[in-house]
Amino acid sequence: MNLVFLGAPGAGKGTQATRICQKYNIPHISTGDILRANIKAGTPLGVEAKAYIDKGLLVPDEVVIGLVKNRLGEEDCKKGFLLDGFPRTLEQAKALGEFAEITCAIDIEVDEKLVVERIAGRRMCKCGESYHVSWYRSDKCAKCGSELYQRDDDREETVKARLEVYNVQTAPLIDYYAGKGVLKSVDGAKDMEEVFEDIVRILNDND
Asked: Among residues 36, 55, 151, 160, which one is catalytic?
């Protein structure tokens, strides 16, 4: 199965993608993870990407498309994959269609107010752990004791800018994949376990 996860920032795509990939033993291809690794390493791509991300803008297509094409050409993608965070524009979706056939696109639907609450309340640690102010009250990491911080692209004003970009450039992908007959939708406001079960049901029915 060649999957694409759609949904606004904070819809829960990353969480569900990790679980689905474990269940079906397919690689989780997250452009966000790849870009963040480059940003942390201070590579030329990372510096360029950070300038766009910090403003709530999308990284240029040519950078992301080349990265994804190379990744999907690797051996572990031969039996399927799950793309998380790509495609984000119609141009990317059309480019993807030239080198990979998508069998199912899952749209995780979440109200924008909930998206802002989810992302703006997120706190990170340098060790990789993440927390949310709704359930974690300390400013120290429970795992390593380091000071928690808020990523620049998690700040409320940046989140709202990201949502504006999503609505203009990424939301049309819903119509695009619906037109190809591969779009399925789930309610992302449900409990995490319920969302997972809904996605599994769709994929099993689609198999």
From this structure: 151
